[in-house]
Amino acid sequence: MNKIKNNVKKAFTLPNNAVVMSMMAVILVCAAPAVVSMIDDSYTTDVSVLSTFDDEDITVNYKVSEEWAVPGSLSMLKPSENNGSYLFAANVADDVPLITSITINGFEISDFENLGRIEMTTNSAPSAITFYVGGDGVTSHSIPGNYDADTQVWNFDLDSVDRAKIGSDGYTSVILTMRYTAGTALSATELVIVPYGTMTISYGEIIIGATGVLLLICALLATPWFSTSGLTIRRR
Amino acid sequence: MIETMATVDYYTLVGAGMATVFFGLLAATYLRKKPLSAWHWLTIGAVGGFAASIMQSYTQLFDWVVLGLTGVSTAATLFVAGMAGMIGVMAYNLIVTRGKTAVR
């Protein structure tokens, strides 16, 4: 009985330091490639980064009860005056409840080439917003937006196809159209267009790089000349 | 948010680890010259599990190694350098100490 107990105790006794360190090194050398072998393209995430528009000679028109209003009755702050985003506001208070649509024309397509998302904040929710990309000889491409009622923000996420079309020579113009239900009691119409670029964070590469650095540090510490207490001239 | 879509079958990995330990213990019954401790079997099991994981997606590991060797990815180059360094140092230590230790 005592012999069995002693054998069990012996089996769980920690081996000497050199053996323990060797075991840890073997596990590390096997675990590192095992972790790396699991990392693929899915270990990335796209992050929206606030971007800015350049000032462009855009025109804004809106319809009041299906009649085009005087363009000058919608005032505008250009990006250079509004932290890189456009701001539109209706001047004539009486017109506001009767607005049925607002159309913004004249953007340079190059302004949208490196964007991943466009956000539009408005204090009077339109029934629909459409982002058109068009040009000579090509059918206009409509990008549907998503509306968040809580934040009153419409956003347009541009996928790779949208970005490819925006970057091609055939598509030369961008038109934004907002439609409102006439008669809805709007106290004011104010619209801010904010551009966002896309940045990709590659977590996979960060993990792989960090694993490589850890292995290099461990390799240095495994040599007879380096230890956690520093460089030793004489071999340990 | 990180989306993890890696095809890891954890049951396979655990199974591989357990099978490695089992066969290791079986082999030990024939090799009783120098009894090995439970820590040795844990190490053998861990190595078995990791080896199974590598075998499951070895093509991906190969891709990263190629990216590292060709210098396309700095992170992969660091990984390759780290692996080469660690294996090199362990081999050197094993040769110098005549198989006694891989880390000094």
Instruction: Report the structural category of chain A.
Output: alpha+beta
Number of domains of chain A: 2
Task: Characterize the overall form of chain B.
Answer: flat
What share of the residues of chain B lie within helices? over 70%
- State the helical fraction of chain A: 25-40%
Taken in chain order, the helices and strands of chain A follow as HHEEEEEEEEEEEHEEHEE
CATH class of the largest domain in chain A: Mainly Beta
Main sheet record of chain A: 7 strands, antiparallel
Number of strands of chain B: 0
Distance between the termini of chain A: 42 Å
Query: Which protein chains make the most extensive interface, counting residues with beta carbons within 8 Å of the other chain's beta carbons?
Result: A-B, 51 and 49 residues
Mean of pLDDT of chain B: 81
What topology emerges from the helices and strands here?
The complex is a heterodimer of chains A (236) and B (104).
Chain A: H1 2-12, H2 17-38, E1 44-50, E2 59-64, E3 67-68, E4 74-77, E5 86-90, E6 99-108, E7 115-122, E8 128-135, E9 138-144, E10 146-148, E11 153-157, H3 160-167, E12 173-179, E13 190-202, H4 203-222, E14 226-227, E15 230-231
Antiparallel strand pairs in A: 1-13, 2-3, 2-6, 4-5, 5-13, 6-12, 7-11, 7-13, 8-9, 8-12, 10-11, 14-15
Chain B: H1 10-30, H2 38-56, H3 58-69, H4 74-96
Helix pairs in contact in B: 1-2, 3-4
